């Protein structure tokens, strides 16, 4: 049975989400040694807060020394990639066979910084490895600057392209989701229910919780919390859940006819 090949990051991701444990040793069946995990410095013009757990990928802020601005990229993120793959395949003769079928033009840090860049709509580029852990290293690993080089992120001559691409893709996805929801549920309910029963309880909810619950942008979530935007009906249950008891109290405090549609 043929095995589907892909870039290292894609194969490692599938191995992790399918339950394969992280490597416990750098030793392989050959003389090759592989890291248990690697950390990469990711540069950007944008600033970030918080972290992300994405399968075998952990992303955390790097707290750059200088200010970030267009034309002055700083190391703003650290990306750790934990290795979940088995030993590399070596043919029976004990020699390597060149195989470029899964090569995408970079390494795992380039692979995921590019994907993250598209997802966030911000320019990101890896500068290479800054830390790794091999068998025998302490749990915190060791610094590894041998292949690290701050990348160049020159100022665009005209308008930036990436944020526009990301926004267009997200808008298209949003329109499809709205169309599918409306087809299944019919006409939306009265927006006054949301404004009176859920919106007041969202004013003290952290914006990051609204983003995680709905998938909406940080900016749009902040406008919802301020009461300047009313989200589509498909987000109402998620927002009511985030609002928690504050929303339930508000909903139960109204008339029975107003509370029934949201609680039923």
Task: Kindly describe this structure.
The chain is an alpha+beta fold. It folds into 2 domains: about 120 residues, no CATH class; about 80 residues. It is built from 10 helices and 6 strands; from the N terminus they run H-E-E-E-E-H-E-E-H-H-H-H-H-H-H-H. Strands 2-3-4-1-5-6 form a 6-stranded antiparallel β-sheet. A hairpin with a 2-residue loop joins strand 2 and strand 3. The N and C termini lie far apart (about 50 Å).
Order of helices and strands: HEEEEHEEHHHHHHHH
| Neighbour order of strands in the largest sheet | 2-3-4-1-5-6
Classification by helices and strands: alpha+beta
Distance between the termini: 50 Å
* Integer tally of domains: 2
Q: Helical amount among residues, as a percent range?
A: 25-40%
Shape: globular
* Fraction in beta strands: 5-15%
Cα gyration radius (Å)? 24 Å
Helix tally equals: 10
Number of strands: 6
Largest sheet: 6 strands, antiparallel
Q: Which residues sit in consecutive blocks of at least 5 with pLDDT less than 50? A: 248-264
Round the mean pLDDT to the nearest integer and report it: 79
How would you describe this structure in keywords?
six-stranded antiparallel β-sheet, 264 residues, 2 domains, 10 helices, alpha+beta
């Amino acid at each position: 049975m043929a095995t589907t090949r892909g870039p290292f990051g894609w194969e490692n991701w599938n191995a992790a989400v399918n339950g394969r444990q992280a490597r416990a040793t750098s030793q392989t069946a050959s003389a090759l040694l592989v890291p248990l995990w690697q950390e990469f410095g990711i540069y950007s013009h944008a600033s970030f807060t918080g972290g992300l757990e994405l399968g075998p990928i952990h992303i955390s802020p790097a707290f750059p020394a200088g200010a970030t601005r267009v034309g002055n990229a700083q190391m703003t993120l650290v990306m750790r990639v934990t290795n979940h793959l088995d030993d590399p395949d070596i043919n029976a003769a004990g020699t390597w066979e060149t195989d470029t079928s899964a090569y995408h033009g970079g390494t795992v840090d380039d692979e995921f910084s590019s994907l993250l860049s598209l997802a966030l709509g911000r320019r990101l580029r890896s500068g290479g490895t800054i830390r790794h852990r091999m068998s025998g290293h302490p749990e915190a690993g060791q610094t590894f600057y041998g292949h690290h080089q701050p990348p160049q992120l020159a100022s665009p001559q005209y308008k930036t392209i990436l944020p526009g691409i990301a926004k267009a893709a997200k808008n298209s996805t949003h329109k499809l989701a709205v169309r599918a929801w409306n087809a299944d549920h019919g006409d939306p309910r009265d927006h006054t229910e949301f404004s009176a029963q859920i919106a007041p309880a969202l004013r003290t909810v952290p914006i990051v919780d609204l983003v995680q619950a709905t998938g909406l942008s940080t900016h749009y979530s902040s406008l919802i919390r301020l009461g300047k935007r009313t989200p589509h009906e498909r987000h109402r249950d998620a927002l009511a859940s985030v609002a928690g008891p504050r929303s339930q109290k508000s909903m139960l405090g109204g008339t029975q006819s107003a509370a029934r549609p949201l609680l039923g």
